[in-house]
Amino acid sequence: MAFATTSDLIEYVPDITEHGIGDFDEQLNKAQTDIEKMIKVRWFDQEYASNTIYRLHRVGAAWDATKLDETQWTKCCVYRALANYIFPMLSNFRPEGDAFREQIDFYREKFNEELDLEFGFGIKYDSNEDGTYAEGETHEFVQDRLIR
């Protein structure tokens, strides 16, 4: 289960393979791992921490990243890989800056926007493992109070 592939990456940045690297699967896998951790911490652990019985009924007892809808997270994965793994690998990090450093900032912001948007629309989590995401398996994440 992959959130994104190199071909997905090329859709967003068509010339990304012109820098001497043709395969970005490793960077996309790292980005996917990051996103899975963020979903677990921000949604699964936190949203249901106060009501364990409710969580057991709705999503199950244990976190399972394979129950996520991978297509929901493609754009997030591409943005995360670009900002945190691909463009830093290509940048020379000189004091005067370079185009890759500017793109790192741009895609980091795009990633944060997209992640918040997906959390707001609801996380698709196939809790009954039937291969479909029914209406009850889309879990909105609403934070209406400050948690410290």
Sheet with the most strands, sense and barrel status: 2 strands, antiparallel
The total number of structural domains is 1
Mean pLDDT comes to 84
Terminus-to-terminus distance: 34 Å
Multimeric state: single chain
Helix content: 40-55%
Structural class by sheet pairing and helices: mainly alpha
Number of strands: 2
SSE pattern: HHHHHEE
* Beta-strand proportion: under 5%
How are the SSEs placed, and which strands pair?
Elements: H1 6-12, H2 25-47, H3 52-58, H4 74-90, H5 99-121, E1 123-124, E2 138-139
Antiparallel strand pairs: 1-2
Characterization of this structure:
The protein has 148 residues and is mostly helical. The chain has one domain. The chain is 52% helix and 3% strand. The chain has a two-stranded antiparallel ribbon. The model has no long low-confidence stretch (mean pLDDT 84).
Quick structural summary:
The chain is elongated. It contains 5 helices and 2 strands, in the order αααααββ.
